[in-house]
Amino acid sequence: MKLLEKQKARELRKQGKSINEIVKEAGLSKASVSDWVRDINLTHEQRKRISEKGRSFESVERRRKSRLENERAKRKEVFDNAKLDYGHVGLKELKLIGIILYLGEGGKTSRGMVRLANSDPDVIKIMMRFFREVCKVPETKFRGSIHTFVHADVNKSEEYWSKISGIPRHQLYRTYVKQSSASLFKRNTLPFGTFDIYVCDTRLFLTIMGWIERIKELVVGICISNRNF
Fold this sequence. Notes:
By secondary structure, this protein is of the alpha+beta class. The protein folds into 2 domains: 2-80; 91-227, no CATH class. The protein has helices at 2-14, 19-26, 30-36, 44-83, 91-105, 121-134, 154-165, 184-189, 202-227, and strands spanning 113-118, 142-149, 176-178, 194-200. Strands 1-4-2-3 form a 4-stranded mixed beta sheet. The longest helix is centred in the first third of the chain and has 40 residues, at 44-83. It starts with a helix and ends with a helix.
């Protein structure tokens, strides 16, 4: 086998192929190819072709890396500058953030139940702060529910979401395990499933709905005013 590989490498070298080209074409190690063809002398034209090809490739690769690095630097600059827009989030800002998140993600049909479901742990953390600090929900009123897939470790999922939300495990409802037809990619990107926050409180539900309605009125009013200019 080695003899045939050596013969193949030498034939390709005699054709004027570079070491890297032989490695790629024949699927051999670079060390072996270098050893097997070291005694083969290339013609002037063959050496010139390899030299020009190598310079061309290296030049293109350098430009590509430089372009990518410049693009990364520009993206980071935009990202970092955007972060400077906010130096502090107080209760006023937290209240508005919570209202908008509930507008997009919260349950709006059950008048006696405040509910929000999400798979993003940061969204859950933000909403728990909103409920605790803005809405003043007592810890004993929180309930949680996990929806996950058959491949998941239920115990780890409950530990994870309990830690994220700060809701004790004994206040979590029984975890719902889906017999899912979702893609493997989706299941792998949601290793702990999704989490639902529940607060059984009609007054809080109506209060949040009132906040949402007023925010919508104010924003629509601004949009209408802007159209008049």
